[in-house]
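Supplementary notes (optional reading)

For those who missed the lab, this is the record we used. Protein: GPP34 family phosphoprotein. Length: 216 residues.
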Amino acid sequence: MDITIAEELLLLAHDEETGRPHIREVAVDVSVTGAVLAELTLAGRLHIVEDRFEALDPTPTGDEELDGVLAAIAESQPREATWWLDRLTYPKRRWSLLKRLAERGVLSEEHGRVLGLFRTTQYPERDPSVEREVRRRVGDVLDGAAPDERVSVLVALLRACDLDRMLFPGARRDRVKEVAEGQWSGTAVAESIAAINTAVRINTSLAMHNIIPAGD
């Protein structure tokens, strides 16, 4: 099954039985936005010029979540990754992607109430094989297998939001760092991914402390 990096990240970021996130939801939301930017970069739609993201190819990808972000960047002046993460991060994207995974049979959609008043929705896994395959691919790379670009991006994002230690406690820290900061297929892609990962770490920290990044 083909899923996006953002969807892979969501599967790893949530408990497979309860559907609850392993980290605070705001950190998940920032990381998911970073994953969307990374996906568009690997697809050749975005690039970075003087630390600011531009649309290299505004042609739609056919994925609604990716194309919404791509269109926003294509219609704007170049901005830094931290600016885009601040402007493009919101819970609706997380819920949309979770619901999409449920519609594809990967997750279940379960409704309930808290204190008998407030409605809640959780997305435990229906088909755990999808997430386990993602874990296997990441685990193999952290054990020494050669990484591809997508796995490297996922490892970098997990490290940026501090999920790597929780999900892969036995992995050597130097190996995680090596994969996360490894050489990409080209300098431009490497610079873009590095900027995204730095922005995820910064924006996650700011969001956790309820600090709003300054705009330009």
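If you only remember one thing from this example: The chain has one domain: 5-105+122-208.
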